[in-house]
Amino acid sequence: MLMDIKIPAVKMRDITKRFGPVVANDKVWLDIYRGEILSLLGENGSGKTTLMNMLSGIYFPDEGTIEIDGKEVVIKSPKDALNLGIGMVHQHFKLVDVMTAAENIILGLPGKKDIKAACAKIKEICDRYGFDVDPNEKIYNMSVSQKQTVEIVKVLYRGAEILILDEPTAVLTPQESDKLFAVMRNMRDDGKAIVIITHKMHEVEDVSDRVAILRKGQFVGDMLTASTNAEEMTNMMVGHAVHLNIERPEPVNSVPRMEIKDLTVRSIEGVVKLDNVSFTLNSGEILGIAGISGCGQKELLEAIAGLQRTEKGSISYINDDGSHEELIGKDPLAIQNLGVTLSFVPEDRLGMGLVANMDLSDNMMLRSFRKGRSFFTDRKAPRTLAENIVKELEVVTPGVTTPVRRLSGGNVQKVLVGREIASAPKVLLTAYAVRGLDVNSSYVIYDLLNKQKQAGVGIIYVGEDLDVLLELSDRILVLCGGKVSGIIDGRSADKRQVGLMMTKLGGEANEE
Questions:
Q1: What pLDDT, on a 0 to 100 scale, did the predictor assign at position 85?
Q2: R_g over Cα of the chain
Q3: Residues of the chain with CATH 3.40.50.300
Q4: I need a surface site. Which of 111, 175, 432, 451 has the fewest CB within 10 A?
Q5: 387-397 pLDDT tens trace
Q6: pLDDT digit string (tens) for 282-327?
Q7: Which backbone phi and psi does 280 adopt, to 5 degrees?
Q8: What kind and span of H or E run contains 10?
Q9: Torsions phi, psi of 72, nearest 5?
C-alpha cells in the first residue's frame, strides 16, 4: 500500500544570501505546506526576514533553488512572487494614507479600475475568512489592526495562496490578536499556506501547526508545535539553555520621584492626545503603560522628556530632599542641566533615536558630546561604551565603526537601549524597548531594566506585549483614548481585564 506523501507548496534548498562579508542565510532548507500555519523562529539577525524576502521577490538568492508545487522557479521581483501565488505582509505597512482601502488594494494592478467590482470582490474575501474591512474608508482613519487587515486582503485579492506575515501582532491588543488568529485559521482551513514570523512564544504555541528554527543564518530543525514547548524552541534558537522567567524584584525604599497632574496634550491638528492624565512614578519601580497604539503613550513620554508642548497640567520632578522641580516649560537640555536625566527610547529608533549613517561610536557620542573640552569632543569614552554594549547585548556587527543602518532592526534596538540605559538616569522612559528583539535579547533588556530599578531608578515602560507588561511591571497604568482607564497592581493584574480597559474606559466596570 502506497503512503500518502505530501508535496510541499514551497521547497527551498541550499538557499544562501550574503551582504558583503555577512552571510545572512547559509544553505537553508525549508518546506512550507498548504493547510498549515508555520512559525519561523530565530534570534535577531538569524536570517528569518531575509529568507522570506527571497521567497517574496525582494531579494534574490546567491545560491540555492526554490520550488513551487514541485516545479523549480526563479523569483526576481514581488510581481514574480505574486504571479506564483506568494504574498508578504511586512511589519511596516505599504499603504497610501489618503486613499481608501479599495483604492489601495487595486493600486498598481493592470487594466481599467472598477471600484464597484473591486468592492464586491473585497466583500467576498472578507466574508469568506472573517475580515472586517470597509472598502470605502480612508486609511488615515483606520486603526493599526484595520491597516494590517487591508494589507492581508490586498495580497489575497491578488491571488496569494502562500502568505507570509512578518511580526503581525507587534502592535495589536490581545483581542485584536485573537481575531487575527481566527482569520489565519480560516485561511489555513481553506488550504492556504501561512508563514508567521514572530518572537512571541505563546503565539507560536497558540496558532502554529509547525515550527522551523534558524540560528545564525542556518536551518537547525523543524517540528510539530504540539510536540514541543517554549523552552525547547528557545534553546534551539539560541544554542544553549535559556531561563524564561522574567524577574520582578520587590521595590526597595521606594519614594515618589515624579508627579503628573491633569496633563493634557493636543496634536498640531487639534486632536486631544492626553486628557487630564494624572499619576505618580516612584523610585525603584517599573510603571508599565498599556494601551492600543496611538492612545497617547508617545505623547506622554515626549511631554515628560520636554519634547512635546502641553496644553495644561504639571510634570513635577521630586528631588531626593523632597523639593519639586516643574519640568513643563523647560527644554530637554534645561531638564538635563537640572540633573534630571530622562532617557528616552523612541518608537522610531532610526528616525528619532540614532543617526543611520553614523557608526556605533559616534551614535554613543550623541549622548555625551557636551563633555568634550573646547571644540574637541571626547571620542574615547563613547567608543568604550559602544564596545561594552556590543559585548554585553551581543550586537551582531563587524565592529563599532560600522554604520548603524547596516545592522538588522533588532541589533539597532540593542544599540539604542544600551546607550540610553548607560546614561545612568534617575528616571528612565522606555518606549517599545524590546520591539523586534528575539527572546534572548529581550531577557537581557529586562535584566538591565531590573538592575536600574534596584539602583533606585523610576522606570516608565511602554510595551506592546501584555504578557511581558504583566510579568515585569510593579504597577500598570492603562490608557484608553488618551484618558487613564485605571492603574492596577502588576502582580495581580489579569490580561483579559487589561485588554478590556485598553478598549473601554475602566474595562468591565463600564460594560453595563
A1: 95
A2: 24
A3: 10-238, 245-341+425-512
A4: 111
A5: 887 787 777 78
A6: 999 999 999 887 788 889 988 998 888 999 999 999 988 999 999 9
A7: -120, 135
A8: strand 10-19
A9: -70, 135
Query: Nine-digit cell at 397?
Result: 556587527
Residue 140 gets which letter from DSSP?
G
State the DSSP H helix or E strand holding residue 236, giving kind and residue range, or none if neither. helix 230-238
Q: Which strands make up the sheet holding 312-318, listed edge to edge?
A: 272-282, 256-266, 312-318, 324-326
Distance CA 150, CA 98 (A): 14
Q: Tens of pLDDT along 464-506?
A: 788 889 999 999 999 998 999 999 999 999 888 888 898 877 6
Q: How far apart are CA 401 and CA 397, in angstroms?
A: 9
Q: Which CATH number fits domain 10-238: 1.20.1250.20, 3.20.20.70, 3.40.1170.60, 3.40.50.300?
A: 3.40.50.300
Q: At what angle do helices 174-189 and 115-129 cross, to 10 degrees?
A: 90
Bridge partners for 39 per DSSP:
196, 211
N-to-C CA span, the chain: 62
Domain 245-341+425-512 belongs in CATH node 3.40.50.300:
yes
Quick one: residue 176, left, alpha or beta (phi over 0 = left, psi -120 to 50 = alpha)? alpha
